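Hi P.,

Sorry for the delay on this. The queue was packed all week, but I finally got your sequence through. Input first:
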Amino acid sequence: MEQLIGRWTAAYEGIAKTLRCLPEPISLPPLGGAADDLSGDPIGTAMDAAARAAGELYGAEGDVSEIGQVLHGSIMFWLAAFDTLLHLRALGTAYREEVAMVLMRQAMGQALTAHEMIHGREPMPPVPPPSLN
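Then the structure:
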């Protein structure tokens, strides 16, 4: 679980870094040490801030750039990974660990793709999903 939480935190940091690179930067608060157990005010504050940032990416008219779409997806995958981690901790089962890994991989990959798009580089090709065997 500790390794999964570390990956979840790294995905958040990647999303935050990319949001700061936008032409109109969006800042997310730091997670701090609260990420170790997925609880506390810093986690709730970060979750709320990420959800607000996702909304900001669509603008008042619902129009969104390609970069905004990719970042919005990244945030949604990150939020879903949090829910999956909570269920994994409470209920166990190996498939939830796999789901959490896929969600975090998607969140990190889309944040990286958006970062590359912002800086005018061709995004890297997608990484194939892990084998379920």
